[in-house]
Design brief:
Strand order of the largest sheet: 1-2-3
Strand content: under 5%
Order of helices and strands: HHHHHHHHEEEHHHHHH
Oligomer: single chain
Distance between the termini: 91 Å
Length: 307
Amino acid sequence: MTKALHDNLTLVKPSDFTQDVAAFLIAKQAQGVSPRYLDFLRDELRFFGDFLAKVGVDTVQSITAQAIRQYLIALGERRNPGGVHCAFRAIKTFLRWYETEYQPEDWVNPIAKVKPPKLPQEALDAVPLADVKAMLATCDDTVVGRRDKAMLLVLLDTGLRASELCGLDLADVNLSNGSVLVRSGKGGKAREVFLSAKTRRELNRYLRLRGDQAGPLFLTVQGGRFNRHGITSLLRRLAERAGVPAPGANDFRRAFAILSLRGGADLLTLQRLMGHSNLELLRRYAKQVEDDLAKVHAQSSPVANWL
């Protein structure tokens, strides 16, 4: 490389943060990540970019560890620890990609100096079965009522994520043996889950009214596919009718995990059914089940209570 060419290249201003984020998202899309994960990265980096603009940072190489820490602290004022940790992961993924993609000289990745936010070790509460029964009791025999009842039972019986429930098609369900193919699992991984006889019976009642046309398993009133916001609204509506706190789809997912463990499921099988990449969270659920059993034993111990 000639000196003149080198001098010209060194005068080129580094691309700004927004341009680098756009290049990063293209790279992740080419890598084949799921649309949901791509949306997550896009949203988190947009929020981070808005913060950087306010503090006068407009290039990746100007980002400091202190700026990242300040952003996480500010984020903690309106998000729970899990939400802050999600933001940290998105920033970490982006900065590591930038480092590998451009290999900038004399630049130290600031994320290396930032410790990840701590996550609470306690497993969150699951939706109480009494609340589920109250919500089920509000469902009538109309097509919407039967659909809502079937959706509640499928959530509780499978531990599906909201996005996975939305992605189910009629062709993914085998009512004969209860198997359900989850095509749009986290990370783009497919897996198989199963429905009990009771859930299949309620699902079949809904399908008699729905019809056998191809497409989404659960149809909106307009005949389209549910999204996560629609699932949240449906659960809120049923909870208001039943007079119970509104649960989220994740509350049903936690109930599936805890009740399955209480019923004798092993961690590895549960990991496969729920589509977890590791056993960390399931071990916390298992510890919660052990604590529950210990409390019951303390209250009902024959020796403690009768001798």
